[in-house]
Amino acid sequence: MGAAEISENIELEGSVDLIIQNDDDSVTIVDYKTDQVEGALLQERARGYEPQLAGYALVLEKLGMQVRDAVLVFANGGADGSAAEYFVKDMDTAKAVAMSEIQRQIG
After folding, report:
1. CA distance 57 to 25
2. DSSP notation for 33-65
3. pTM for this structure?
4. Among candidates 58, 65, 59, which has minimal Cα distance to 91?
5. Cα–Cα nearest to 64, from 27, 20, 101
6. Do 18 and 69 form a contact (C-beta atoms < 8 A)?
């Protein structure tokens, strides 16, 4: 993906696994995970990845893209060993949390 300055003196960089262009010209961020977790542990682990997806959204928005949603795909997180998806439910809150964490880390 690359990098973008998302706020004054704050630059983020990263690599999105997949960006899907939706019919309305918005995009969906897809990030694949190989964590071998399922059920409640998968939900907990997925919530921990929300700031990463929110950071991707901040960068993509700064690059002029409209982010509709973001999804994690756990390669074998389903009960039968199939893939499991986790959608970020509140991207605005996730982005705010990510910005707070970034600002906390840079002091």
Report:
1. 15
2. E-----HHHHHHHHHHHHHHHHHHHHHHHHTTP
3. 0.86
4. 58
5. 27
6. no
DSSP character at residue 91: H
CA separation for the pair 24, 5 (Å, rounded): 26
Residue 1: predicted pLDDT: 55
Helix axes 91-106, 39-62, angle to 10 degrees: 80
Q: Which pLDDT belongs to residue 30?
A: 97
Domain locations in the chain as residue ranges: 2-6+17-106
Q: What pLDDT shows up at residue 105?
A: 81
Q: Which amino acid is at 3?
A: A
| Segments of the chain scoring below 50 in pLDDT | none
Round to the nearest angstrom and report the end-to-end CA distance of the chain: 26
**Per-residue model confidence as pLDDT tens digits over 3-18:** 677 777 778 777 899 9
